[in-house]
Amino acid sequence: MELREVQTFLAVAQELHFGRAATRLRVSQGRVSQTIQALEREVGAALFERNSRRVRLTPLGERFHGGALRGFEELHRTLTDCRAYVRNSAGQLRVAYVPEIGHARLGEVAATFAQTHPHCDLTLNLTWINRFFDASLLLTEMEADVALVWAPGPDGKAAESEGLTVGEVLHSEGRGVVVPVGHPLTRYDAVRLDDLRPYELLRLPEAVDPGLRERWTPERTPDGQRLSYTREDLCELTGRADLPPEDILTLVRQGRALHLSVASLLQRLSYPGLALVPVVDLSDAVIVPVWRTTAESPAVRAFVEATTAAFSPADQGNRVR
After folding, report:
1. How many CB atoms lie within 10 A of CB 83?
2. 136 and 153, same structural domain?
3. Got the DSSP string for 159-217?
4. What is the pTM of this model?
């Protein structure tokens, strides 16, 4: 059994769609199908039930998935840590970030870091929405040494998981709902979740951890009333495994559904025809640096310190309205 076969199996098991798995792996859909068929021959039975409408794991597939995921994640973590050690020893540092954090501010951090650490080669890598909810996945898939991520607040603990170190909160702000200009909700300066009940909201990718998904996009209002979400998630609606934020905003602009986000989204990403209305009873979102504990190095610590210094105390307690 080859590592490539296990990686392909896990991608299909997560996406439950051969096309999206192929996009994620950057191979053809036919290649994915051939790999799964070869793996099933080696195992001795079908791992997926598939037809023209859906893909799902068989009971044997579920059994295989548990062991394969644990082994693959451990191997991938070890490989990532070893690569990080080599990079750091050679004076290299890779940072992953989501676009809403702001390119200008990251540019300032990079310039400051270059002045104080001229012998360290810093690379900034942009990521998309389906990765930034899981800091461990982001660090692994992008082979990053540090990730700057959003987390549902107020303290960034939602980004914690085994083997990760989460730094102090860099920035905190309120939440809002993105709507087309002229939408009935734009009559209000701010709304509550209960005001969103008549409208459909965009569903986050199913691959997002259920606990995080609930904190970003709650299923119910504080008094227990159910909110309405699209039947298909964002990946299914767009047909993409990687989701630039502009693709999500396009869905809103087309009137497909509304989108819960951070309150400054449209300040950071200009998109004509849209408005953002603050939602006052959603918990704040925060930006935190995250890195693998075993891969911590002087370069990692120095970058985190430079980033923390670039965000003012006002940022760390600020609510954008």
Report:
1. 15
2. yes
3. G--TTEEE----EEE-EEEEEETT-GGGGSS-B-GGGGTTSEEEEPPTTS-HHHHHHHS
4. 0.69
